[in-house]
Amino acid sequence: MTGVTDRSGVTVAAADGAASPGRAGEHAPVTPEWTCGTCGAEWPCAPKREQLLTEYGVDRPMLSVYLGACLAAAAEDLHLAGSTSLQERFFGWLPPRPRRH
Asked: Could you tell me whether strands 29-30 and 35-36 are parallel, antiparallel, or unpaired per DSSP bridges?
């Protein structure tokens, strides 16, 4: 598996599956458990979700690509391929997109 890096430069999962230390307050995941290294909640935790929404702003497609890569890595680490609960965990919190007229 290759590393997945968010826009702040924090690597989510290194090639060997080990967690990157990240920076203080970044709420980076601890793999292979996919828990938050800062608060211990399931990753992405509430603070990281807010960070991601701020980082990606209106670039919803790139946020989806990033979260999809994280989902794939988490499914591999947690041995939960095709898990609906993981899909909900990684995508279910996203606010609905504004509708185009």
From this structure: antiparallel
The reported pLDDT for the residue numbered 86 is 92
Q: Which residues contact 28 (CB under 8 A, 6 or more apart)?
A: 10, 11, 12, 19, 20, 21, 22, 36, 37, 38, 43
Q: What is the pTM of this model?
A: 0.73
Across the range 49-75, mean pLDDT stands at 94
Q: Residue 93 above 50 pLDDT? A: yes
C-alpha to C-alpha distance for 99 and 24, rounded to whole angstroms: 36
pLDDT for 94 equals: 93
For residue 62, CA distances in Å to 6, 53, 59, 67 come to 10, 11, 6, 9
As a whole number of Å, the CA-based R_g of the chain is 13
Distance CA 16, CA 38 (A): 21
